[in-house]
Amino acid sequence: MVAHEPGDWFTESLRGLAQQTYESLQALILVTGEESDPLSRAILDTIATEMPAAVVRFLGGNPGFAASCNSVLNLVQGDSGFFCFMHDDVALAPEAISMLVKELYRSNAGAVGPKLTYWDNPKMIQSVGVDVDRFGVELPIADDGELDQEQHDAVRDVFKLSSACMLVRADLFRTVKGFTESLATSGADLDLCWRLHAAGARVVVVPAAIARHKENSTMSLASDMVTDSNLEAEIVRVQSVVALSSISQVPFTVMQMYILTIVRVVLLLVTGRTSQALIEVRAMWSLPFGLGDIRRRRDELSEHREVDGSEIRALQLSGSSYVTAYVRRKARRAGISQSQASGVVHEAPPRSSYVMWISLLLLFVIGSRSLFVNGVVSVGQFAPFRGSARELVASYASGWWGAGFGQVSALPTGIALIATGAITTLGNMGLLHTLSVCLLPVIGWLGVWRFASVLGTRAGRISSTVAYAAVPLPYASIASGRWGALLLYATVPWIVHLGRMLVGHADIDDSEVKEVMAEAPPLQWRRWFASLTLVVAVVAAFEPSVLLVLPVIAAVIAVVSITQGVAMKWVLRWVGVTAGIVVAAIAMNIPWSATYLRSGWWEALTGAPVESGRNLGLFGLAQFDVGSFALSSVTILLYGVVLGSIFLVTGPRAVWALRGAALVAVGLLLALLDDALLLPAHLPEPAILLVIVAFGIAVCAGAMGASFVLDLRKARFGWRQPLSALVAIAFLVAMVPAGINTLGGSWNQPSLSLPQLLAQLPSAEADGGYRTLFIGDSRVLPGSPLNFGWGIAYSVVNGADPSAEESWETPPTRLRDNAVDAMYGIVRGQTSRAGRLLAPLSVRFIVVPIIDGGQSTRSHTIAAPRGLVESLSRQLDLRRRYASSDVVIFENTTWVPVRSQLTAAGAQSSTLAGASSMIATDIAGATALPSALRPESNWR
Fold it and tell me: Which of 210, 362, 629, 755 is 20 to 30 A from 312, comparing alpha carbons?
């Protein structure tokens, strides 16, 4: 027994050891500190009273539990017998040692351990052994604090025993050279058990042997903090995996650990556990610095290794301990909730949830199969990721933004996030691009499932999730390339879910007649706030219009809450929380967000307006007509659940039904007013606004589903039952189009898109590099269109087609003003030499897109602005290179490469200022410079 500053419990621990029925027991008490210390004298007195025959040795300090135990290698002679290592706060049952020894012989084990129970409550289990996965993450076999009902009383092999009490064969302990002394405070028991397995020995728990342990376990499945641990423990875990795994397993295991850490860090940050996320990152970061100690431990292990890594891997927990712990924790909570609600709520069976998720995943896989195989078509906002992660990071850190005509400016935070996301795909930017599109609908379904927990029933969650998946919006957005709308579809449910918890909307309890509001614990509230801030900040980094959508949703929920009698205290929280989140999200995107402090900031948030109106109409908006989707008119039946929820849902769920219906009404109204140009300022594109409508439908469907299961069955037969049946039939029919649209395997993405039409243009690096000016209707322009006037917009990209890094609007510069002057001269007929005006800007091609494959197709064409092509044709230095009903391409005959050396005449002209100088002088003929000499990413 190792005694280190023991407390009042020490007497009882010694007494339990003295009462052992094992006859050959010899007690060795190892006391930390000096014999002359006052505390040491008290310890000696206690030992002399309770175990006068015990041998006492002072260690002269506190070398740690591992080093203290290893002193027996010098103090005890011979290889026969056993060593039972104990903490000073363990009280053994009288027959514990006898039971351990008998089972060690019976099982031919190398190490055995007892069942540990709580010191003050022996009926509660503390540990009956621990499972460990390949990453060294531990998972207790029994939940910490689980009531002992003999459910874990079978003798079984375990991967790890607690060092609180462990009996090991003496010869085996000498063979493996005892504990690893460098592991002074944590990880010594896992390290020893792992090395015992490598030596071919069994590690067994013997529940018949019982020991009370005063120290609480750090692995509590009943707590959300199950994985929280200190930095040293995480470093030990990571290094132990590398030191103890077989050499053939190390590379793949380390790679898996890095991927797991990335996923874990994201989840921890989203759930507000920032400190734990930093601990896990620092632990992985420290791995290269511990290679010396790892090599030493591997060399020591190789001296007694008898089995290979595959045999040890078979003893470990398959999969991840984190996932298993989460599933067990959720199952435990569900069981508690179900037992508490027994006989009160007739809930939908759990298998219905499994059926729903299996069906949705099949819908996802079948409908996206071609996208996973062939990649996502570059249409609309689905511009590909051109650079590598390293290039993106270098660009972000340099302060030079190559988009548009290039400028020194703070780069969008989204570029850094793209580079970070590349880690999850091991630098495969094509795979990252595909996943960033295809996985967003699934994230949205998970968000609605999580949000719908507020409705209090599984039926409500199923109905909400199915309704959200049946809405055409995500699939039409994939077809037309509306990535911003797809991102909001994925994240709005999560945002509202975290927002309602921050405000205080508790899950509905059927024992209450009205909605319950509750205060969250301060620590939990801060975590939710941090999570929501992070989510909104990340979304705003790609789609700034979320900063407008979030206040709209919050305002609708707050207004409905007022009408339903919710106290003003809680209503004002929506205002405060929303304002705080918006401000915090903007702050997290500094310095890029500071570039919006300029004129034209509203257009930068909402995108270029369509001055002639989109003219989708109410019916087109109601059926989410933002892209190709077969039988979209059938999905109008989804609004049946909105009307049904208003008339049929009662009790506290009626409040959420009204909130959902209000979201639908307000979302449609805003989209319709903007569509008809009836607002003083334009709003984000319809697909963005329709996310509010889709979420409102999901909320109403959840309230309706819960009411159908709980309320309507108990009500007397009347008009409510037939109406609910009609709503259910309409809902089922509205689900059919989503299934039909999976048949193509690509969600109706176009076979012909604008980048394919421009494939005839030379490479971006050809002849020193060039830029392309797209001009026409803003709905068909790539990149980040800017409104010019007269229903005309423009965008500039490097090369022939844009990359994702050019999807953000650049702040105004003098070069952009020069381009606007040139376009003004073209449209107003004030010049016939616009090519010379654009030549210093390296604009080689001017493209008028008519069909982009997304919002404009051959069957539904958005015509080019009237007279635009004719005005371009009148320019003497613009040569029509290609013209069709799909696209018109002009080439600037006087263009100058991005990287070039001007001619003498061009150099002379460049010293002059003004448009008249550029028109008068032809600066064409410049010598292109190789990109290796002046890479564009470093161009100043």
Answer: 210
Phi then psi for residue 598, to 5 deg, are -160, 170
Give the separation between CA 7 and CA 29, rounded to whole angstroms.
15
- Give me the phi and psi of 833, to 5 degrees please: -125, 45
| Residue 728, both tokens | 């259910």
| Pairwise pLDDT comparison (350 vs 302), residue with the higher score | 302
The letter for the amino acid at 7 is: G
What is residue 298's predicted lDDT score, i.e. its pLDDT? 92
- What is the pLDDT averaged over residues 684-693? 96
- Cα(207)–Cα(213) distance, integer angstroms: 14
Spatial contact of 246 and 308, defined as CB atoms under 8 Å apart: yes
**pLDDT tens profile 186-223:** 889 999 999 999 999 999 999 999 999 987 443 333 34
Mean pLDDT of 220-228: 38
DSSP 520: P
Lowest mean pLDDT among 37-51, 339-353, 540-554, 722-736: 339-353
Residue 226 has pLDDT above 50, yes or no: no
The burial of 302, by beta-carbon neighbours within 10 Å (0-12 exposed, 13-18 middle, 19 or more buried), is given as exposed
Q: Are 854 and 747 a contacting pair, CB within 8 Å?
A: no
Tokens for 59, please give them: 């260690």
Phi, psi angles (nearest 5°) of residue 614: -85, -30
Q: How far apart are CA 629 and CA 638, in angstroms?
A: 15
Query: What pLDDT is stored for residue 910 in this prediction?
Result: 61
User: Residue 683: which of 495, 849, 484, 493 has the closest Cα?
Assistant: 484
Asked whether the beta carbons of 614 and 677 are under 8 A apart, the reply is no
pLDDT in tens, 648-680: 888 889 999 999 999 999 999 999 999 999 999
925 pLDDT band, cuts 50/70/90, is low
- The model's confidence at residue 905, banded by pLDDT at 50, 70 and 90, is low
Pairing of strands 400-401, 407-408: antiparallel
How do the residues of the chain divide into helix, strand and coil, expressed in percent and rounded to 5?
Answer: 50, 10, 35
Convert the pLDDT of each residue in 399-412 to its tens digit. Answer: 888 888 988 889 99
Mean pLDDT for the stretch of residues 379-391: 90
Mean pLDDT of the chain: 88
What is the DSSP code string of 133-176? BTT--EEESS-TTEE-SSTT-S-EE-SB--TTEEEEEHHHHHHT
Residue with tokens 């979302």: 667
Range list of H helices, 543-685: 546-563, 568-588, 601-606, 617-622, 639-648, 653-675
User: What would the mean pLDDT of 819-833 be, rounded to a whole number?
Assistant: 89
In the predicted structure, residue 743 carries a pLDDT above the cut 60: yes
Q: What's the pTM? A: 0.75
Exposure string over 859-888, b if 16+ CB within 10 A, otherwise e: eeebebbeebbebbeebebbeeebeeebbb
Closest CA to 844 of 806, 899, 912, 911: 899
Q: What 3 state SS string does 773-786 have?
A: EEEECHHHCCCCCE
How far from the centroid of its chain's Cα atoms is residue 311's Cα? 34
Least Cα distance to 391 among 436, 422, 431, 430 occurs for 422
Mean pLDDT confidence for 58-68: 88
Q: What is the per-residue DSSP string for 714-782?
A: TSPSSTHHHHHHHHHHHHHHHTHHHHHTTTTSSTT--SS-HHHHTTTSPPTTGGG--EEEEEE-GGG--
- 3-state SS, residue 416: helix
Quote the CA–CA distance of 883 and 887 in Å, as a whole number: 6
Cα-flanking dihedrals φ and ψ of residue 682, to 5°?
A: -75, 155
673-692 burial: b if 16+ Cβ within 10 Å, else e: ebbeeeeeebbbbbbbbbbb
Task: Name the residue with tokens 């998946």.
Answer: 469
238 close to 257: Cβ distance less than 8 angstroms? yes
* Spatial distance between the Cα atoms of 730 and 395, rounded to a whole number of angstroms: 52
